[in-house]
């Protein structure tokens, strides 16, 4: 169905039971469409200018020197120096029982959750680059009644090798071989690493 008047053309379309009527304006595009195109074009120009003329972007910890070179910030330089120092100065340690009693067992087979240790028995071998206080804040060693006992000092690599030797050879210790269940690693070492 189509009706018309002298100043406006109205068209009606039927789709199923829905009747849609719209007004056809003179020209082929709606009245506000040209303004949208102009606005989008302007935003594109402004964005492009901002992206290409705003200078280099640097990540945190990176600075640009007065000469225009890229450099590490003083804070990042200090962090690097500290981490390099830690790699050169590590400690391989043991956590040993301070009293006779039951301790959590992270490496026990057959679903066992605790193991009996005598005073001086090894619960865990480990390596730290940060020292005891930073490795175990507040003396929280993962179980009560343990003592941090430094065993070897060297580079991080040397300490890791020593830790591996101790973990793998743990079943050969008299304290480990005397038990009914011989563990493959100390009770506090869940993994070989």
Q: What does the model show?
A:
- The chain is α+β, with helices and mostly antiparallel strands.
- The protein has a domain at 84-177.
- 30% of the residues lie in helices and 28% in strands.
- The chain has a 3-stranded antiparallel β-sheet, with no helix packed on it. A 3-stranded antiparallel β-sheet has the order 9-6-10. Strands 4-5 form a two-stranded antiparallel sheet.
- The termini are far apart.
- The model is unreliable at 1-8 (pLDDT under 50).
List the helices and strands and how they pair.
Layout: E1 2-4, E2 9-15, E3 18-24, H1 33-53, E4 62-64, E5 70-72, H2 74-88, E6 90-97, E7 101-104, E8 114-117, E9 122-128, H3 132-135, E10 146-154, H4 156-169, H5 174-177
Antiparallel strand pairs: 1-2, 2-3, 4-5, 6-9, 6-10, 7-8
